[in-house]
């Protein structure tokens, strides 16, 4: 008994000593962070629980994005890719979101993926943090570009629909993208004041328009057969003759809309009680949007009408033909398509805000060149104005791609999906390695427990499967005009990040890694 008491007292003494060391270290860390905030500025916490949920819910706008991009699946996979792929993507992306939510519960930070990679990597922490940071920033800037790209595609499609003599030029699309970028850019100057009413209006419209669209198509549209919806695998239309390949390529329509759930993560410094609210927002937004996307695609397949007309519509936007065949009215069709555009436009405000915070955080940690300029917060507006300007400039420059390529829209859709899934993979991998190792983890309020290992494995397997198909060209034979540039551009970013590491990144980059205390 005496020996047991001695052991217990010794253990308590060790714990107290560790706690004292941790307290000192935490005090030093907080002191450094305070000094950093004084020099670079800090964001204020103002986002409540409802706004945090609505932020992610609207940002994804999954059923709207699927409605205006399902032309990719019509020629690759068809109904089989859309129906079964939507179910598969919903389950897989939810597993990815839950895996990342567990990390968000430990360390809810604006940097998110790059900070977690640096924190949980078994070695070369700064290297993985810098590489992850470049990939995540690139992914989100591409994601920010996809919103005006989709909106410009809608405008051009409606112009052709209403004025058949109109012949669109590539530079028209670029100008339209620029026009759609200006208002969200200016609106983000006062995003704090706009947030609550904007999120509330967006959430109501997101749900209300969904219900109205479903009811309209079910009541008015011509019915497809069950065999068409559940048993049709479209292949040899795009040039790909292998059914498995066409199904995989067709996943782009259903996987792209479900990415971006980490957007609320990059607002973490402005979310109250972030350790509980950010993970809940991520999981809620993915699960709700997955269900809505699946329901809308199922309804769409049963009410698609004349498939030949839809697939070969001169508007290049099949959803216009679907609504027109259902309603028989140009005015009603315009209304329904504009409804889609409204939600995507509101989501653009959220994406803009999220990516500007990410660029600010990465610059604050000296991940980007000219970090002292981009890593500051405007004292009056309480937002990263310089980072916002950088994002806006990148969108303006990327929009010029439309002038030189007829398949730019495809790139704007496949690029963010590919880059974002890559950015999700490495934090989950490193966290999984840490979970199965002997090193202890200080979990946050949200913990997976025994489900952690199988869920992380499934999430990583799903990501790898999706990443395989994203760089594939959607049409054969491949030419300079129809080439899928997503893979080469991601490779260029990785190469650029490696060069940055070798030249100056390894000396410049400083990531504040959260301490992981053992649990006693």
Automatic annotation (TrEMBL):
Pfam families: AA_permease_2. InterPro entries: AA/rel_permease1. One of its GO terms (cellular component) is membrane. Keywords: Membrane, Transmembrane, Transmembrane helix, Transport. It is a multi-pass membrane protein. One of its GO terms (molecular function) is transmembrane transporter activity. It is found in: Membrane. The chain crosses the membrane at residues 46-70, 82-106, 127-151, 171-191, 203-224, 244-265, 286-305, 335-362, 383-403, 409-432, 453-472, 484-503. It comes from the Eukaryota. This is Amino acid transporter. The lineage of its organism: Eukaryota, Fungi, Dikarya, Ascomycota, Pezizomycotina.
């Amino acid at each position: 008994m005496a020996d047991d008491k001695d052991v217990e007292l010794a253990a308590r003494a060790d714990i107290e000593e560790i706690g004292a060391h941790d307290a000192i270290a935490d005090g030093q860390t907080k002191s450094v962070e305070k000094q950093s905030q004084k020099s670079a500025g800090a964001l204020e916490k103002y986002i409540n629980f409802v706004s945090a949920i609505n932020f992610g819910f609207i940002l994804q706008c999954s059923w709207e994005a699927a409605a205006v991009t399902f032309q990719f699946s019509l020629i690759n996979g068809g109904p089989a890719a859309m129906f079964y792929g939507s179910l598969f993507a919903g389950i897989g992306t939810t597993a990815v979101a839950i895996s990342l939510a567990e990390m968000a519960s430990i360390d809810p930070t604006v940097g998110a993926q790059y900070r977690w990679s640096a924190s949980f990597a078994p070695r070369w922490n700064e290297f993985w943090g810098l590489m992850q940071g470049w990939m995540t920033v690139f992914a989100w800037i591409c994601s920010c570009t996809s919103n005006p790209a989709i909106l410009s595609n809608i405008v051009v499609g409606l112009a052709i629909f209403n004025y058949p003599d109109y012949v669109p030029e590539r530079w028209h699309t670029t100008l339209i993208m620029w026009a759609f970028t200006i208002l969200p850019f200016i609106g983000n100057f006062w995003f704090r004041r706009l947030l609550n009413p904007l999120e509330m209006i967006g959430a109501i419209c997101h749900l209300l328009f969904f219900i109205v669209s479903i009811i309209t198509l079910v009541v008015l549209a011509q019915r497809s057969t069950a065999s068409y919806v559940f048993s049709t695998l479209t292949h040899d239309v795009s040039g790909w003759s292998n059914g498995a390949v066409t199904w995989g390529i067709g996943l782009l329509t259903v996987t792209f809309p479900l990415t971006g759930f980490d957007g609320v993560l990059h607002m973490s410094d402005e979310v109250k009680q972030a350790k509980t609210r950010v993970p809940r927002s991520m999981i809620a937004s993915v699960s709700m949007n997955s269900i809505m996307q699946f329901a809308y695609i199922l309804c769409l397949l049963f009410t698609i009408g004349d498939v030949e007309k839809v697939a070969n519509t001169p508007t290049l936007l099949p959803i216009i033909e679907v609504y027109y065949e259902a309603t028989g009215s140009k005015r009603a069709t315009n209304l329904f398509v504009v409804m889609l555009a409204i939600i995507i436009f509101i989501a653009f405000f959220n994406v803009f805000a999220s990516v500007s915070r990410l660029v600010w955080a990465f610059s604050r940690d000296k991940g980007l060149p000219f970090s002292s300029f981009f890593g500051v917060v405007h004292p009056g507006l309480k937002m990263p104005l310089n980072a916002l300007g950088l994002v806006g400039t990148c969108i303006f420059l990327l929009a010029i791609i439309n002038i030189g390529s007829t398949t730019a829209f495809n790139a704007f859709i496949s690029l963010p999906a590919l880059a974002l899934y890559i950015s999700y993979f490495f934090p989950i991998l490193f966290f999984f390695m840490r979970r199965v190792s002997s090193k202890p983890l200080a979990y946050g309020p949200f913990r997976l427990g025994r489900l952690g290992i199988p869920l992380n494995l499934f999430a990583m397997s799903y990501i790898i499967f999706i990443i395989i198909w994203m760089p594939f060209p959607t049409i054969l034979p491949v030419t300079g005009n129809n080439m899928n540039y997503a893979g080469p551009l991601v490779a260029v970013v990785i190469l650029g990040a490696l060069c940055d590491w070798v030249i100056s990144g390894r000396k410049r980059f400083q990531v504040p890694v959260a301490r992981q205390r053992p649990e006693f």
